[in-house]
Amino acid sequence: MENNVIDSVDAIVIGAGTIGCATAWHLAKRSVNKVLLIDRNTIGSGNTSKAASLMTLVRTKEELIPLIQETYKNIDEIEQETGEKTGKNKVGTLHIASSEESVVNLKKIVAIANKHHIKNKEIGIEEVKKKVTWLDTSSIKKVSFMEDDSFLDAYLLANAFAKAAKLKGATVMQNTEVIELLSENNQITGVKTTKGIIKSSIVIDSAGAWSNLLSLQLNIPIPMAPVRSIYWITEKNDKLFPHDHPMIVMPDAMAYSRPENGALLFGLREENSPHFHPNKLNPKPNSDFLGPKDDEWDILENYGKDFINYFPEFEEIGMKNCITGISTYTPDGYYTVGPFPNFKGFYAATGCAGAGVAGSGGIGRLIAEMILKIPLFTSAEKFRIDRFSDFDPLSENFRQKCADARSKKKDGG
């Protein structure tokens, strides 16, 4: 490892997932001259590549909505700028209510959608049957269709953001690990990497599940923890799962689904999602199953019954794959975005709470506006990294609180 200074830049973004790449683009497009995006592997190769990537616009935590809407705008812009596609598929989302409680909650969701000008309409059972032929509608009491919702390929999105950032003058350094944050008198001064030292007065920690391993070098705890996400993909069946098949949010089954190249991708909420110490995670992209391998089928058996009730043909459809990834959850389910008040030049852009891909563009814009000290396009108060006190983000107790936030989440994605 070299200790020589190899460069000096205006801003360093650590982590080339969707959030890091979006942040680099937003900085570069706002004329931050020398932006460096750095990753120990390659663009979008980490947990970004395993994301289910439901871009559901309406959220019960309304503060997330402007950030997701910003991402939609960004996608149109970067696809036009770069000629790259993000795999965006506008199929809409069916929000299904099968209990009185869910009917009440769905009415609240529709009210939120209307408040934020998100297109939606209530549809009848016959139309639902036409849109989703496999769905058992016998228990359904109310359905709302969010027309503009899309899903995409998070790996392609990260690469499109990175390419757009490069077109604006940013530099991307791949296969380079940041091993130390450098500082002096509570001011960030740069980073030490496996290739040498890079100086900068601005550093953005967008390292996802490993963010705290960097920030704690400065005695700055970020309120988030790595929590397992899990979803399944069925065998291909173009008749049951056409490409224009809508996404579905089923709160009574604690489940969601979307089409996946002629198959069905679906996820279930566990009662106790596994959480991990970041030191225990493989830093290299891999397809290893996180947690006990038996979970692949035990979760379906223990938590999938309500979902299977919606899907009478489930047992006849083979399972092609079960994929586990890491989401960085916070105890309150909000992002973790912004500066640490008592440390100059250091920013966090992490704690995605299961909506990192959807909110990536908005997070990137917020960080850029904070750094440039210009008015924020939306409130970031809920995302402050100092909103919790007296916690150890690596402790079993705190990680369990973050896991609980995922287990109790009912809105899609």
CATH level 1 class label of the largest domain: Alpha Beta
Q: CATH H-level name of the largest domain... which superfamily?
A: FAD/NAD(P)-binding domain
Largest sheet: 8 strands, mixed
Number of strands: 21
CATH architecture of the largest domain: 3-Layer(bba) Sandwich
Helicity range: 25-40%
Explain what this protein looks like in three dimensions.
- It is built from ten helices and 21 strands.
- It has 413 residues and is α/β, with parallel strands linked by helices.
- It folds into two domains: 5-72 and 154-225 and 331-407, 3-Layer(bba) Sandwich (FAD/NAD(P)-binding domain), CATH 3.50.50.60; 90-148 and 227-325, D-Amino Acid Oxidase, Chain A, domain 2 (2-Layer Sandwich).
- An eight-stranded mixed beta sheet has the order 7-8-6-16-17-18-15-19, sandwiched between helices. A six-stranded mixed beta sheet has the order 10-3-2-14-21-20. A four-stranded mixed beta sheet has the order 1-13-12-11, with no helix packed on it.
- A hairpin with a 2-residue loop joins strand 17 (255-260) and strand 18.
- The radius of gyration is 21 Å and the shape is globular.
What's the short version?
The protein has 413 residues and is an alpha/beta fold. 28% of the residues lie in helices and 24% in strands. Strand 16 and strand 17 form a beta hairpin.
